[in-house]
Amino acid sequence: MLQKQLIVLIIGVSKKLNKRNVDVTLMSLLIFWYCQEIFCVRWSNQFSQIFTVSNGVRQGGIMSPVLFSIYMDELSCKLNQSHIGCSMNGMIINYLLYADDTCIIAASPTALHVLLDIWADFAVPNLIILNESICVSNQIR
Question: Which end of the chain has less Cβ packing within 10 Å, N or C?
C-alpha cells in the first residue's frame, strides 16, 4: 500500500513539473531519489529501526520548499480565483502557506465554508489529508 501511495504522489508532482516544462532527466532523478529514501531517527546516541516515508517532501530538504510550492500552486490559483477573503489595501488575502501548514482566512463563516470546500476539492484527488487533531479555528474581532 505504501508504494502505491508514493507512486501516486510522485506522479502528481511529476505531472505538475511537466506542465512547467521541467527537464525529464531532473524529474527522473527526483522520482528515483524519493523512491529510494530510507530513514531512521537518532536520539542522542541511539538509532531507530530503518523505515520509509510514503508522502510529503523531506523536512529540511533543499528542494522541499520548491516542490511543495509547485504541488500547491493549483490550490493557490483556485483560492485566488474565488475572490473571497479579507481585503487589505485592495488585495484579497484568503490563505497563507508555509512549509506543510495551510491557514485559510475568511471574513465570515459562510466565506470560510466556501474556501474550505475549494481546499477539500483540491485535497482529495491530490492525496492531502487533513489532520483534524491539530486544526484550530479562531475568530478575531
Answer: C
